[in-house]
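Most newcomers find our protein records easier to grasp once they have seen one. To make this concrete, we reproduce a full record directly below:

…
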Amino acid sequence: MAKKVQFTETVLRDANQSLMATRMAFADMEPILGEMNKAGYYSVECWGGATFDSCLRYLNEDPWERLRKIRAAMPDTRLQMLLRGQNLLGYKHYHDDVVEKFVELSIKNGIDVLRIFDALNDFRNIRTALEATKKYATANTVASGCISYTQSPVHTVSKYVAMCKELKEMGFDTICLKDMAGTMSPYEAESLIKGIKDGIGDMPIILHTHCTTGMAYMTITKAIESGVDVIDTATSCFSNGTSQPATESIFYALQQYGIETGLNEDVINRVNDHFKPIKEKYIAAKTISPKSMGTDAGALIYKVPGGMLSNMIANLTDMHAMDKFDAALAEIPAVRKDLGYPPLVTPLSQMVGNQAVTNVIVGERYKNVSNEVKNYFKGDYGIAPGEVNHELETKILAGFGMEHPVDCRIEDSKRTGEDFAKAKAELGDLARCEEDVMSYICFPKQAKDFLEKRKAAEENVYTYSIEAM
């Protein structure tokens, strides 16, 4: 059993993303940041994932300014982000120069730990982000290679160990197993952690899981017994449901094992005391759905993460077809098999879920195929982990005039796209800095709307000040 286990606190990112779609405003977290800085966490996950999009789209906040403020309030704590490799924080592949600039700006504005993953575990799509991380690294920078964990006939312990060896050879500093659906069992955790430790030696291993299926506490306990080095947890009032296990609960359990954590008990309790009324406020506003706070063991069968489930419910509700929910859920494993068993993580989870819904609504499999699924078969997202449905693949590729999918790093197959100078010119005086331009490249409409609102607000303030003199 490990002698020391460290904690990554997720309340500023994944916990509130899982329970309330990343709608927590910066004003609600700001008062406690100084206290969190004293907690002794391995890291605080505060950025990346859906935070960037949500800040611009829903909260009228500049995500870069949020990061800078967190950095200023937490000078002694590693700040962590989740980065989707060549996808950055969006849903498509970006050019190498854009990926490199994004990583440079992330580190410049305060990020220490970059947890980098590719939805298909196609590691060709994370190399540029890794190289940029190393290029712009400070003394505190950590490049964490992340594996999207799932179960299928083609996902075995030996395959995961081989993936970890590849990540180590690529130059990552740590390796994270990302169990986004919370389906990893205690037995699987034991087999994986021991197998990985035997395969790669002393390289730190991190486990990220969710409580969606009710498995997480057992799984984390077994992972700790098997030698995991860092675990992701959420302050208890924002834990459980589709979020992570509770920080305080795991801390107390490890105390009895005699395992060192580095956490300050008084501080982590004060952190939770701060967020209790915040959670109640969002429950009252119906920002937090009761469904996200429950346990759904059905995910053990369907391998469906909480966010994917919410997306399906929203789609079926919009179509007035919630009576098809159970049928759509049952269709997911079949679609996933036809696509070669991709891990159900953004953006693949949405693609598989939406196609399952379409199949059920139309009443015929693949009569209507989404553009995203077509592009998946074309190879635009990387190589499928397992064998795909060849009949479906042949039909889709014929529509592109192709016989075989693209089999190269996606960036190498396209030479047109985002241009930093072009984006800066399009924004004109709306852009004050490189960060504004990067926001626009990643989310054009949302960023431009935000920047226009910012300019209008400042002009109104200026006009009012002149008139008041």
Q: What stands out?
A: The two ends are 70 Å apart (CA to CA). The chain has a mean pLDDT of 92.
